[in-house]
Amino acid sequence: MKYNQIRAMLAITKASLHSIVRNPSAVVFNLVFPLIFIIVFGFISGGRYKIDVAVEKDSDMNNPVLQSLEKISMVNLVKNKPTAEMNSDLEKGKLDAVVRFSRNEKGILVIDLKMTKASPENGNVFKMMLNQIIDKQNLSVSRPDIPMTELKEQVVEGREYRTIDFILPGQLGFSLLSAGVFGTAFIFISLRQTLVIKRFFATPVSKAVIILGESLSRLIFSIFSSVIIILIGTFFFGFTLVNGAVTFINMIILSVIALIVFLGFGFVVSGIAKNENAVPPIANLITLPQFLLAGTFFPISNFPEWLQPVSRALPLTYLNEALRKISFEGASIFDVWYNILILVIWGIIVYAIAVKVFKWE
Amino acid sequence: MSEVIIQVKNLVKKYEDLEAVKGISFDVHEGEIFGLLGPNGAGKTTTLEIMETLREKTGGEVIIDGLNIDKDQNEIKRIIGVQLQSAGFYPNLYLYELIELFAGLYNVEVNPDEMLNLVDLIEKKKSKVKELSGGQKQRFSICTTLINKPKIIFLDEPTTGLDPQARRNLWELIKKIKSEGTTIMLTTHYMDEAEVLCDRVGIIDKGQIITIDTPDNLIDDLIRTGFERPRLLKLATLEDVFLNLTGKELRDE
After folding, report:
1. Is A4–B107 a contact, with Cβ atoms under 8 angstroms apart?
2. Across A290-304, A311-325, B5-19, B179-193, least confident range
């Protein structure tokens, strides 16, 4: 009878799955932690910390109101954005407002303010700011009875963007990262130290199949966790799945791709760490900065500018961003090809290192 | 004399700065228990691991049941059972699940209950390895070497660290496996164990085989040289006293 490696792989996967679900820390990290964060952030409706305002391209840029706005650090002014993109961002709540500055025939500065129902609070805060600036400037001129500036406002329809819509993809991303890194690193070090792998080598199973079998079980467990997180978010906290099941499936496919990349980090850690005690510091070095900087809790546009390139370098950033695009904007897996490309590049780098540092005994 | 099932010829293993095995040769016969005896660091485990396909040799030849270790590693793996010194098991699994895991790895069908019955662990079916006593652990470990119904099993210091009762219990198990026709090769540094269990022993020291024979012949040879124990042996040993006082039944269940 010919030896069947697939059968051996499935035996490993089954054993590994049994082991994972009986291991409290795996369940806590994959499922309980993300859910706690989702619940906490689901209840405290933390607003965003910056107001994103786009200035229409054909605006008269040389005006005192715009100059004053530029001095307000809370306001993030976006220029040079194509009009179509600007309008769609406004509908999605990615922009809080769009302004257009122009002068009418009397030389009065006219401000067209477009706000969105997708982000009513921020829009109103911005309107108040704008009014204050206008009042101040109108008062400062010699003839206060003739207004220098006129404000026209308009509110566009948009989907409401809730905190959960931001938090859940971030938590999902982080859950995948920590499952990939911690889970894999611990199990391979433990199997190596207790000579379980060596005992496996005394059977006809191939090395690749041992790794595949283990990876498959992590994948199954993590995807199961992701499904639970998304379902709980959707049914209990009003998480937006724009196109329902299609969006859900796209999120799961993306999760699979990302987890495969993150497993690579786990293999690297298991190769570098001398024993189990060395895993947490090394694994935290990989996961914590991404937890904080990859837009898990806050949009990375909130970070100081010198820090943003760091965020832009992290794989989790691209996963989080892609998950949000899929869930809220209804993008498909193909629309986020750029994010996937970056993840794949990370994957290639990480697996190249893993092949070098991975140890069997 | 029965057929030769294992042939080791001029086996050499060099590590970077040390020659652990310096050209040893021996045969193991089908159906016997062959013991490799020697102090710690003599090269027992290295020799065994090369035969188990777990370590590359530097030189020499190993033939197991007609299969050459250089070419037929996977075929050899399928007909041998291996117990490693102080090896653990996949974490968080019950005994019957571990047996199923090995059955998958060997591509064989087994009934976990039957396997556990064989080593008297059927009541522990739903226990984890870490809940077992030392003797039970070793019995389970031997159980996992039998899953693929091997022709030969390799046991590396199977009784190290066990109490006298558990050792005797394990000896019975090893004899039972032999009686079913399995060839057994084991290492030990307990001479009483070798004397009770082994049909033939090879004594290895500093990477070289010093002598190979039956325990009886080796003892007789020594006596013929005029050797005498400095203190005349009493008719009982302290171990006999211990077993007489504490009983022979196992303590670990």
Report:
1. yes
2. A290-304
pLDDT tens-place string over residues B104-132? 999 999 999 999 998 989 999 999 999 99
User: What b/e sequence results for A113-131 when a residue is b if at least 16 CB atoms lie within 10 Å of its CB, and e otherwise?
Assistant: bbbbebbeebbebbbebbe
Distance CA A235, CA A42 (A): 12
Q: Which residues, 6 or more positions from A271, have their beta carbon under 8 angstroms from its beta carbon?
A: A354, A356, A357, A358, A359
Q: Using 50, 70 and 90 to split pLDDT, how confident is the model at A45?
A: low
Topology (CATH) of A51-156 = D-Maltodextrin-Binding Protein; domain 2 (3.40.190)
Residues 2-31 of A with CB under 8 A from B: 3-4, 7-8, 10-12, 14-16, 18-19, 22-23
Q: Is 80 exceeded by the pLDDT of residue A204? A: yes
Residues 132-151 of chain B with CB under 8 A from chain A are 144, 148
Amino acid symbol at A266: G
In percent, how much of chain A has pLDDT > 90?
Answer: 17
Q: What is the pLDDT of residues A16-40, one digit of tens each?
A: 999 988 888 778 877 888 888 877 7
Q: What is the CATH number of domain B4-89+149-246?
A: 3.40.50.300
Distance from CA of A15 to the nearest CA of B (A): 6
Across the interface, whether the CB atoms of B87 and A196 are under 8 A apart is answered: yes
Q: What is the pLDDT of residues B190-229, one digit of tens each?
A: 888 999 999 999 999 998 999 999 999 998 888 888 888 7
Mutate to test the interface with A, among B105, B141, B148 (most CBs of A within 10 A): B105
Question: Is there a contact between A279 and A182 (Cβ–Cβ < 8 Å)?
Answer: yes
Interchain proximity B54–A203, CB inside 8 Å: no
* Contact residues on chain B for A22, CB-CB shorter than 8 A: 92
Tokens (6 digits) for B125: 């079916």
Q: Looking at the complex, does the CB of residue B77 fall below 8 Å from at least one CB of chain A?
A: yes
Q: What ranges do the domains of chain B cover?
A: 4-89+149-246
pLDDT of residue A42 exceeding 80, the answer is no
- Structural domain spans, chain A: 5-44+162-357, 51-156
E-strand stretches of B39-158: 59-64, 67-68, 80-83, 152-156
Q: Token pair for residue A263?
A: 């497993």
